[in-house]
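Summary of Year 1 activities. Much of the first year was spent building the evaluation harness for sequence design. The harness presents a backbone, in tokenized form, and records the residue chosen at every position. We chose the following record to illustrate the format because it has been used consistently in internal testing since the harness was completed.
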């Protein structure tokens, strides 16, 4: 069993570490796969289970329904949006499938994405190739990031959408999504951003960036676990676009149970589908409570310091971390090249250090509940 160091290196948020029980026995450096479970999330899920136990379905009509509105508002606050611009979903896959169904590809059949984006982003449009959609994948010249100019060169007057990431899951490189949105809009295209690896650890303001659509959720940096995400849809587009993939939550009169017509919500809720997982909703409310209490800018300051410390220690150990060239372009994802990353991750696990493997790399991802001693322990194992 692992024990805490006698004199851990403090930072302004290190006192939150005690809210995450996993640190009693483990070093957790895998937040980019799954955020650590907090006691607040446990309490919120227990609250939901208690209502299910004592009230059953009657809780739907006040507490549970209000929790959905609370979550839309909480998501909106973390990205600078209005609650009316937020749709709830079970996964980025379902959210992007609804989004993809709402776009007219007749005059603009082209969708531009990149080779470093999570495959879900490309899959939504690759499956539409038989219907005439053209998918252009912009390659990365260095395997770390994609030059904005390369995206600009791929976008033309036939482009319907630029779909890419804020932070590349493959390298942790931060993309300039404001510039990407400007490129798309200059040619009359729309811009979708997969922000699953940024929202919660990097400040995001959707109105300032000018993006049209953005997705993120609880699984990673928002500390809410799997099964709940949001789709931001710019207010005017939420009134204009009509999805062809839908569900009963998209109807403004859903409790009329009318199978003859659908009366769309006039806001982003028209992009919703079916009944959300309430356990996931309550878990996410618990995670967001912590994020709002700290503030994402404060999270970013601490995490940037931990990330730079980890990179420096890895480089000093000769591990040649594969990261963006400048600190301003790095999120809290550090890729360590390795010939057998799965074996190396097992070796870390034997030392009670939780990390993850990606092709050719061990992936480490510190968050505000980590301390520098966590970095030291992980690098010692990887170096040995």
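For this record, the design step produced the sequence shown next.
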């Amino acid at each position: 069993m692992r024990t805490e160091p006698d004199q851990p290196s403090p930072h302004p948020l290190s006192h939150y570490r005690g809210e995450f029980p996993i640190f009693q026995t483990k070093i957790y450096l895998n937040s980019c796969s799954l955020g650590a479970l907090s006691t607040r999330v446990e309490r919120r899920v227990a609250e939901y289970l208690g209502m299910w136990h004592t009230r059953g379905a009657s809780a739907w009509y006040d507490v549970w329904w209000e929790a959905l509105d609370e979550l839309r508002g909480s998501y909106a606050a973390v990205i600078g949006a209005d609650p009316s611009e937020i749709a709830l979903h079970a996964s980025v896959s379902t959210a992007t499938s609804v989004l993809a169904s709402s776009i007219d590809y007749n005059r603009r059949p082209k969708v531009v994405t990149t080779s470093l984006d999570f495959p879900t982003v490309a899959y939504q449009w690759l499956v539409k190739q038989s219907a005439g959609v053209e998918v252009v994948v912009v390659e990365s010249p260095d395997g770390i990031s994609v030059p904005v100019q390369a995206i600009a060169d791929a976008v033309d007057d036939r482009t319907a959408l630029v779909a890419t990431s804020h932070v590349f899951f493959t390298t942790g490189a931060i993309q300039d999504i404001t510039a990407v949105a400007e490129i798309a809009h200059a040619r009359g295209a729309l811009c979708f951003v997969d922000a699953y690896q940024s929202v919660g650890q990097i400040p995001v303001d959707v109105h300032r960036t000018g993006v049209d659509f953005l997705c993120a959720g609880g699984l990673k940096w928002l500390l809410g676990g799997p099964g709940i995400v949001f789709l931001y849809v710019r207010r005017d587009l939420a009134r204009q676009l009509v999805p062809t993939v839908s569900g009963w939550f998209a109807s403004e009169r859903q409790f009329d149970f009318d199978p003859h017509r659908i009366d769309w919500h006039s806001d982003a809720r028209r992009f919703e589908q079916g009944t959300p997982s309430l356990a996931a909703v309550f878990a996410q409310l618990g995670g967001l409570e912590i994020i709002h209490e700290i503030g994402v800018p404060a999270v970013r300051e601490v995490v940037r310091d931990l990330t730079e410390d980890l990179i420096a220690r890895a480089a000093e150990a000769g591990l040649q971390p594969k990261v963006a060239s400048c600190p301003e372009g790095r999120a809290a994802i550090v890729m360590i090249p390795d010939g057998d990353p799965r074996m190396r991750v097992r070796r870390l696990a034997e030392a009670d250090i939780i990390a993850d493997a990606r092709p050719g790399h061990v992936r480490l991802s510190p968050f505000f509940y980590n301390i520098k001693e966590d970095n030291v322990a992980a690098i010692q194992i990887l170096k040995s």
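The longest strand covers residues 159-165. Quantitative recovery figures across the full test set are reported in Table 2.
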